[in-house]
Design goal:
mainly alpha, binds zinc ion, two-stranded antiparallel ribbon, 8 helices
Length: about 250
């Protein structure tokens, strides 16, 4: 839990880029024709891989994602980029596993809805592991079991923290999304296929952070970010849910 302030500037820049990148594109079979066709060049006309429900739950469409990734050039990954993919594969799994455990305990729908979405986030990273023929660190691991010892320890700590109260559980939810955003930003790379996946995961995390924050407010609580800056957090919360489909 070291990195923090040092990527504040880039964090803001990345947030802006991500919003620009995915606000414009879209269209998932609703035959739109709407047309804000702005065009920053990163749009693709095939729809966003991120599918956003009314409550902000953001799933990755594996088919759309695969098609878009297939169209991008293969990169030569550095050791850091490879390690980043391995970490994110398990970090998205951690989100799923923690939310499953917290749903079991608190029966709050936000946890079950978002846990399912987190599974698709982890699978999105798996697409890249397969593409670069990297061994899957999550292979064969049950919920709550991780290859990365830091994530194993974090899982245990978060589930324990979330068992204290509903507000504590919702705070854990916000914390996981906060961590995801910070890690995705710190792992940002020029490889276009990784960028495509990470940008969409980050968008999902922003929406999920909004969803958990909304639940916290409903329960009379607030969230103080532990990984991203307060300014970045405030900017995310001030924004609307980012839809993946035309709107
Ligand atoms: Zn996620």
């Amino acid at each position: 839990m070291t990195r923090r302030a040092n990527h504040r500037v880039r964090a803001t820049a990345m947030a802006v880029i991500a919003m620009i990148g995915f606000a414009a594109c879209s269209s998932n079979g609703n035959g739109d024709g709407s047309g804000n066709g702005s065009g920053n060049g990163s749009g693709n006309g095939n729809g966003s891989p991120a599918q956003v429900d009314a409550d902000g739950t953001t799933q990755m469409d594996g088919g759309v994602l695969q098609t878009q990734i297939d169209a991008l050039p293969l990169a030569t990954l550095t050791a850091d980029q490879e390690a980043g993919l391995l970490r994110m594969r398990e970090e998205e799994k951690l989100a799923h596993d923690v939310y499953v455990a917290l749903y079991d305990q608190w029966q709050v729908k936000t946890f079950s809805n978002i846990s399912k979405a987190e599974l698709t986030h982890s699978e999105a990273v798996k697409v890249l592991l397969d593409r670069y023929e990297l061994d899957d660190p999550a292979a064969g691991n049950a919920d709550g079991v991780f290859t990365n010892p830091d994530l194993q320890a974090l899982y245990t700590a978060l589930v324990e923290q979330g068992s204290e109260s509903l507000v504590a559980a919702l705070t854990v939810g916000a914390t996981v999304e906060d961590l995801d955003i910070a890690d995705l930003q710190s792992l940002a790379t020029t490889a276009p296929d990784i960028t495509l996946v990470y940008d969409n995961l980050e968008k999902g995390s922003r929406n999920h952070l909004r969803a958990f924050t909304k639940q916290l407010v409903k329960n009379g609580a607030t969230y103080t970010p532990a990984y991203i800056s307060q300014a970045d957090y405030d900017a995310i919360i001030a924004g609307e849910m980012e839809k993946g489909i035309a709107g």
